[in-house]
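re the bet — no i am not wrong, look at it urself. input seq straight from the record:
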Amino acid sequence: MVVTIRFLVVSDIHGNVRSLKAIIERELNNIDALLVAGDLSSYGGEYVDVLKILNTIVLKNKKVIVVIGNMDSPNLINIINNSYPSITCLHGTITKLGDLTIAGLSGGLYSPFNTPFELSENDFERLIASIVEEISNVRNKYLVLLSHTPPYGTRVDLTFTGLHVGSKSIRKFIEKFKPLTVISGHIHEARGVDKLGDTLIVNPGPLFRGYYAILNIEDKKVKVNLKKL
């Protein structure tokens, strides 16, 4: 079985519906699904119009898979699941898209900024344990990780001050289970691509500044094109 799928990948929307609409209008006809790596809002607000736009994509028979970020209220998970059930929201859970298995981690690590949805490394370890339990029952070898928080010690978790602020638990998961690709966001200045072993790590950059990516998976070959409005 050869898997071929084309994703539109965005992160850090922060309520910027104008850029979100523009990117969707540009790319919708050329993609199979949309991946959103968190921060739909800023400090828990400005998410309603974002969800309405994402729901229009579902209505056009495109899969929409999201995790929420540290700037989103944790309650947004329940809001999406209850009010927008066609949008798949992941938090320590998985979903299937054809032969792909997509695992998701919402929230961010504890920080000095006291944002709405922050977790400890122990919290991420428990969420990852739930994912591991689920993927142990999945036969296919095509695994994608969608996580607002990037893995530690890579180009995509490096702040402008020179500090790596990603999750060590997420890095351990990647090193052990070797997903095809990992999509993360959170660190606005760390837009780019890196690798951990054979796993391609992608931060598409903040959508509110017009950044996004197109990700192609063909069998076990992953290609990414970083783009801007």
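see?? The chain has one domain: 4-228. told u. also The first helix runs from residue 17 to 27. so pay up
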